[in-house]
Amino acid sequence: MLIYLKLAWRNIWRKRRRTAITISAIVFAVIIAIFMQSINRGSYEVMIDRMVSFSIGYLQLQDFRYDEESSLDNAFYYDGEVREQVLAADNRISHIVPRIETFMLAANGGYTRGAIVLGIDPDKEHRFNGIRSYKTEGRFFEPDEHSVMLSQGMSDRLQLGVGDTLILIGQGRFGMSASGLFEITGLIEHPIREMNNQAVYLPLETAQWLLSADDHLTALLISPERERQTEPVASSLRQKFEDGELAVYTWPELMPELLELMELDLAGPRFITAILYVVIGFGFFGTILTMTMERLREFGVLLSVGMKRGRLAAVVFLETLFISIIGVLVGMAAAWLILWLINPIRLSGDAAQAVLDMGFDAILPMSFAADQFYMQGLFVFIIAMVVFLFPLIKIFRLNILEAARS
Q1: Is the pLDDT of residue 200 over 90?
Q2: 0.85 cut: is pTM over it?
Q3: What is the percentage of the chain residues whose pLDDT exceeds 90?
């Protein structure tokens, strides 16, 4: 086998320029393919991370009726016993974050706006998503305060600031009246645009009191130690609560529309990548075709002195494999280095303003997901196998006498 490897390595460098051009084409294709996927997936990874951290969590524990009817009437009782059951279900759980959420009217005496009211434990929330770092004015409330934090957009819409009084009017659990006056202790620049225009945060116990839902939650957000553990942890929790009224949902189950939009948006770069690889495949095929036709006499001589066709085909296969492996490895290394050097791309001018208007930071983050790197190696390997069919067929159909005279 070592002899075959040496022969294949020497053969591909007989025409150094041709081999270098072929490898360069593969490197270029791999870099472009990885770059296009990275820039698209990077933006979506940031979007998903924000949605998971500030909206739905990696996992949610709910009353099984709440998914169909998001009403406070379908909130569930939460105490220390439920908490211990959750923690005991799987030792890979790192955070549990209690929340109660509803829709209310927020007013300043003259203006009224619809608001998403969230009751949170500020300490647990901050450990989960660092919410305190998004404060722009004032201070964050304490867990036992009768006060609120207002999102920046809601503050602008109601023309209220730190120290002013916010009026909340709505309906609590089982039709109970829910209204109150709350001092605004601080403002938050919420990272999700829709939430920044509507969110009002209260301490969890204050929100439960306001909504007549003492010791009840609409959702318990559960975070595994690593994102890839989401499904195994969900399975453990489902087994734990399978006989009760609580249901467990993963983040893909809670926002399928976003995932469908992502897949649709990624279809464009994938199509361009496919065209790119088809073009590179023809270039690769041209190189192997030329190498094969130039060496027919050589093949005929080798076969005439006793070399078996299978072994000759193995040498040619190794030549094809060497070219593709070198191209993929160099391309992956170069792509990773380029992404590391430019990550993130900072936008400016009109492009930056357009992104800011959509509620995102004026940057294009890059994804370093492992699969987008090794998948390029798989695609090039498939191309190499298809290209190798030509010399394989040629070797096994080769007439030794005609080849030796050519």
Answers
A1: yes
A2: no
A3: 16
Q: How far apart are the first and last CA of the chain?
A: 29
The span from the CA of 222 to the CA of 167, in Å, is: 31
**CA separation for the pair 345, 43 (Å, rounded):** 11
Reported as a pLDDT band with limits 50, 70 and 90, residue 266 is confident
| Domain map (residue ranges) of the chain | 2-50+258-405, 65-244
188 within 8 A of 241, measured Cβ to Cβ? no
Backbone angles phi, psi at 69, to 5 degrees: -135, 100
What string of H, E and C letters represents the secondary structure of the chain? CHHHHHHHHHHHCCCHHHHHHHHHHHHHHHHHHHHHHHHHHHHHHHHHHHHHHHHHCCEEEEECCCCCCCCHHHCEECCHHHHHHHHHHCCCEEEEEEEEEEEEEEECCCCEEEEEEEEECHHHHHHHHCHHHHEEEECCCCCCCCEEEEEHHHHHHHCCCCCCEEEEEEECHHHCEEEEEEEEEEEECCCCHHHHCCEEEEEHHHHHHHCCCCCEECEEEEEECCHHHHHHHHHHHHHHCCCCCEEEEEHHHHCHHHHHHHHHHHHHHHHHHHHHHHHHHHHHHHHHHHHHHHCHHHHHHHHHCCCCHHHHHHHHHHHHHHHHHHHHHHHHHHHHHHHHHHCCEECCHHHHHHHHHCCCCCEECCCCCCHHHHHHHHHHHHHHHHHHHHHHHHHHHCCHHHHHHC
289, β-bridge pairs:
none
Q: Which amino acid is at 133?
A: S
143 touches 204 (CB < 8 A): yes
Q: What's the confidence (pLDDT) of residue 299?
A: 79
Strand duo 135-138 + 219-224: pairing:
unpaired
Tell me if the bond preceding 344 is cis, omega within 30° of 0: yes
Residue 28: CB partners within 8 Å, gap ≥ 6? Answer: 280, 331
Q: How far apart are CA 151 and CA 54, in angstroms?
A: 13
Are 116 and 103 spatial neighbours (Cβ–Cβ below 8 Å)? yes
